[in-house]
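Thread: "does anyone have the structure for this chain?"

Original post by V.I.:
We have the sequence but no experimental structure in hand. Need at least a predicted one for the grant figures.
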Amino acid sequence: MFALRMRFSSIAAIPLMLAAGYSQAQNGDWPPAIQALEAQGLTVIAEFEVEGGLRAFAGTAEEQPVAIYVTRDGNAIVGTRLDANGKPIDRAKLRELVEKPMGEKTWAQLESAAWVQDGKSNAPRIIYTFSDANCPYCHQFWEAARPWVQAGKVQLRHLLVGVIRADSPAKAAAILGASDPSAALTENEHKFDQGGIKPAASVPDEVLRILEDNHMLMISTGFRGTPGIVVRENDGSIKKFNGMPQGAQLAEVLGPR
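Reply from O.Q.:
Generated one for you, C-alpha cells below.
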C-alpha cells in the first residue's frame, strides 16, 4: 500500500535417518523417505541432480531452505554437503530453487498488502516493517531511519498491526482512516512519548480486516513480534530482521547513508 565424488567430499547433516526402501524404477516418483519428511512438516520443492549415487531435494523447514539427500538404500539425510575444504556445495542450488522464489513470493505479498508510506515515492530502497502504533522498538526504528528517509534514500512501508495494547487497533484506525495516513503516522511518532496519536472512537470493519490480514502476513513471513523488517537486496534476495536492528545491522537494513 529460497558433482559429488565421495572420496573428495563429506556430508555434514542433522542426524536424521529414515529407513525407507525405494527403487529407481519408480519412474521419477519421490521416495518414501521424502514423503515421510513432508508428513512431518518439511516442504519439498524440487529435486536436483548430484553425483555420487544420491538423489537430492530442495525444500524448506520453518521458512529456512534445506537440502535432503536420499541414498541408494532409501535413507534420507537432511543437512549440508561439504567439500574437502569444509565449504558448502549446494548453496547456489538452494538459492536458485528455494530462496529466490520464496523471496519473490514474499515481496509480492508485501507489495499487495495495505501499508502506510513513510518517505519519498522515488526512494531507491524500499523497506517493509510490521509496526504497532504502541511499539517502542518500532518507534526506535522510525527514529533511527530518519537520516535515510529524509535524504530520500529509503522509503519505509509500515504494515500496521494491533497487537501491543488494547488501544492499538484504535490507533491504527486513526492512522489508516486519516485523510493523509502518512502524516498521521508521523504524528504518532512525534507524539510517541506523550502517548501517540489519539485513538479513533471506533474501529471500522475494514480496518479490522486490514489489521488481521497484516497480522497473518506477519506470522507467515516468520515474525512473532514487532518490528518485523524485510528488505530486498540488488540480487533479488530478501533479508528479514526481527526487532530493532542493532549496531552494524542498522546499516545492513538501511543501506549506505
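V.I.: this helps a lot. The helical segments are 32-39, 91-112, 136-144, 146-150, 168-176, 181-190, 205-220, 248-254.
O.Q.: and Residues 139 and 189 are 6 Å apart (CA to CA).
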